[in-house]
Design brief:
Blueprint lengths: L3 E5 L5 H11 L6 H12 L2 E7 L2 E15 L2 E13 L8 H15 L4 E4 L13 E2 L2 E8 L15 E4 L4 H15 L8 H8 L16 E5 L8 E8 L9 E10 L2 H12 L4 E10 L3 H5 L6 E8 L2 E4 L2 H7 L6 E8 L9 E7 L2 E6 L6 E4 H8 L6 H5 L4 E2 L4 H9 L12
């Protein structure tokens, strides 16, 4: 009889783990990408499902720092989740995640996050989308019509290899403004943001990564954009396009300068950005909303509170609130209980209690609201949460609110 055991994956099984990941995710990466995956996996917490000593499933978690309202928190970023096609739907994922949470807690990570391959999977494990991104398209066949004057500082294209050192301060600044963003190492800049090693060029019709910076050499940059371009069809066919991966600015005029630049690149007629914050200032700045259109909104980062009191007391609170929360959590028994949350601009306490609840809610819904990107009141209205005390959800919403919506870009 075959038996399946859930246990840590040792270093000398990394190649076996990579083979499983690439099989399950239909990948056959070139050597640099495989090496990069190996390096990432080596630094992860790794839980494997073994059948007769052979790896048939795995779940891994990176140790990342996620910006949360008022600061940042260690976060287990799930990745590489894979179950062999021969072993699916036997409960291996469930067993591996159950084994992962104590390991994440021991490593001091009160949050877990992931990009979901399929939205149907992760709600049952206490995850919910905590950030959303908009896809934006600009009609660049005419000059971009904005309601403010662009920042007049000069724009310059830089060597992408120089971008991490030059642009990290600006990116870090954006993390203090918006929750939901991960701290980036130089390696992540190179592989994920700039894709220097993984060579996008050739994989599609877009050219190599370009980086444009606002501000003269020696000045602190006022903003930057990471993008690629595709030329138009010959003989007057479809015009070319600009694909924006990331754009950060120190204010609206700087953003206006960068968007105007992108929309004015010759031989292109469209600017597309695949992941923008839902409250991107560009949407306010556009004088003509037919020229700047949101073409889609998708859930971005899925979040789970793996240590609920630690997570709630670590974020900042916009307004005073004192409520007893009756939390439903099918997977973490320590969370399936009542907590008294006393929070406000001066700090927060969250302790177990037996007092009567003001609000009954699912752990996943608390996760959805944690970064300030969603509200609980609609859930009460729609019967997914229960307010035992009138106005409890509205008070919690007011306390959770943030000035900027949370946002997660295209990478971890
Ligand atoms: C963070 C990331 O890495 S995202 C990448 C996730 N990985 C992939 O998509 C790779 C391809 N898929 C797989 O490897 C596997 O099918 C997994 C990991 C998605 C699921 O693993 P399994 O071991 O089959 O899941 P398990 O048997 O534990 O199922 C748990 C529950 O989720 C449900 N479920 C699992 N996968 C799916 C799915 N794709 N769609 C809908 N429901 C799903 C199961 O029906 C089951 O429901 P139940 O609890 O009501 O019975």
């Amino acid at each position: 009889m075959t038996t399946t055991a859930i246990r840590d994956i040792p270093e000398d099984h990394l190649d076996q783990a990579l083979d499983l990941i690439h099989l399950v995710h239909h990948l056959a990466p070139a050597a640099p990408t495989r090496y990069y995956h190996r390096e990432l996996l080596a630094s992860c917490i790794r839980v494997g499902a073994y059948e007769d000593g052979r790896l048939v499933g795995l779940a891994a978690a990176h140790h990342h720092e996620l910006s949360v309202p008022g600061g940042e928190l260690p976060c287990a970023a799930l990745d590489f989740v894979s179950v062999a096609p021969t072993h699916r739907r036997r409960g291996l994922l469930t067993a591996m995640l159950d084994a992962l949470w104590p390991r994440c807690a021991a490593a001091g990570m009160p949050l877990a996050a992931l990009w979901a391959s399929q939205s149907a999977i992760y709600g049952r494990y206490g995850f919910a989308p905590a950030t959303e991104t908009d896809r934006i398209e600009i009609d660049a066949t005419r000059p971009l019509d904005l309601r403010i004057a662009p920042d007049p500082r000069p724009l310059r294209l830089i060597d992408p290899a120089a971008a991490p050192a030059l642009l990290t301060p600006l990116y870090e600044e954006s993390r203090t403004r918006r929750a939901g963003r991960f701290r980036r190492t130089e390696r992540r800049w190179r592989f994920e943001t700039l894709r220097l090693e993984t060579a996008d060029a050739g994989a599609d019709e877009f050219g190599p990564t370009r980086v444009v910076v606002l501000g003269a050499p020696g000045e602190t940059p006022g903003g930057y954009a990471v993008y690629r371009t595709r030329g138009g069809e010959e003989g007057g066919g479809a015009p070319g396009a600009v694909q924006v991966r990331e754009l950060e600015a120190d204010g609206a005029p700087a953003a206006a300068a960068l968007w105007s630049y992108l929309a004015s690149i010759d031989l292109t007629g469209t600017v597309r950005a695949g992941a923008r914050p839902a409250d991107d200032p560009l949407l306010q700045l556009a004088a003509d909303r037919d020229q700047v259109r949101v073409t889609g909104t998708v859930p971005s980062l899925w979040l789970r509170l793996t240590d609920l009191p630690a997570a709630l007391t670590a974020r900042s609170w916009a307004a005073p609130v004192d409520l007893v929360l009756d939390v439903r959590d099918d997977r973490l028994p320590t969370h399936a209980r009542r907590f008294r949350l006393t929070a406000g601009p001066d700090g927060a306490a969250c302790t177990p209690t037996t007092a009567a609840p003001d609000l009954t809610l699912d752990a996943r819904d608390l996760a959805a609201c944690y970064l300030g990107g969603a509200r609980l009141s609609p859930l009460v209205r729609d019967g997914l949460a229960t307010a035992h005390t009138p106005g409890a959800a509205r008070r919690l919403d007011a306390a959770l609110e943030t000035e900027w919506l949370p946002f997660t870009g295209e990478d971890y």
